[in-house]
Amino acid sequence: EIVMTQSPATLSVSPGERVTLSCRASETIRNSLAWYQQKPGQAPRLLIYGASARATGIPARFSGSGSGTEFTLSIRSLQSEDFAVYYCQRYNNWPSFGQGTRLEI
Amino acid sequence: QLVESGGGFVQPGRSLRLSCVGSGFAFDDYAMHWVRQAPGKGLEWVSGISWNGDIIGYADSVKGRFTISRDNARNTLFLQMNSLTPEDTAFYYCAKDVVGPGPFYFDFWGQGTLVTVSS
Predict the structure, then answer these.
(1) Which tens digits make up the pLDDT trace of A55-104?
(2) Contact A51, A66 (CB under 8 A)
(3) Are the beta carbons of A103 and A19 closer than 8 angstroms?
């Protein structure tokens, strides 16, 4: 089974900064990768699919890149509402998630 | 909209059946999934079913104990959970796939229903 590993587990940043979150697959998944944002008490929200395509309504400050086994989610000019947990998910077969990266102030 | 129900408190070894009713989209056009999240933990995909029920998958952690099904006439997704253990304690979300056969990614999620397994 392909394992998804996210790093770091927690990232402490300040509003206005740019951050990059990492997701690594244990085998190639081409571009079959999605990113989700989850805030406390809420369901996850789709941000990125196909490794780099923004979902409907997602602000342009969110961007995804990568293919194969290495992927990144970048958020430029962090807003207060961006502090949340971010998960990557592979979907080359039955899906699995990374363990998440928490963005904290 | 996706609305889950059926969660609750149950003793180890017992069963529970979750339901998820979809509205506002063509339910029978899309694969559907169950994803769970133990309190304070990450997301775990549990099971998925294609639009017509022909393609079904389970996580190893629930295989042989959980059964996913759907009733397209009632726009409803089900998860029959048997032989529950404390490790099954989690919020259970239903999630809509973006394609019929699945599995792809999930563009809409319900708000979840909490299952607590404890003696």
Answers:
(1) 999 999 999 999 999 999 999 999 999 999 999 999 999 999 999 999 99
(2) yes
(3) yes
Q: Residue B86 in 3-state DSSP? A: helix
**What is the model's pLDDT at position A36?**
98
Fill in the amino acid letter for B49: I
Q: B107 is written with which tokens?
A: 């563009």
Cα–Cα distance between B116 and B106 in angstroms, integer?
A: 25
- E-strand ranges in A1-105 read 4-7, 10-12, 19-25, 33-38, 45-49, 53-54, 62-67, 70-75, 85-90, 96-97, 101-104
Decide: residue B107, CB within 10 A, 0-12 exposed, 13-18 middle, 19+ buried.
middle
> How does residue B37 score in pLDDT terms, banded at 50, 70 and 90?
very high
With beta carbons under 8 A apart, name residues in chain A contacting B103: 91, 93-95
Instruction: Locate A17 and state its tokens.
Output: 């900064």
CB contact under 8 A, B45 and A100: no
Would you list which residues of chain B are within 8 Å, Cβ to Cβ, of chain A? 33, 35, 42-45, 48, 57, 59-60, 93, 98, 103-112
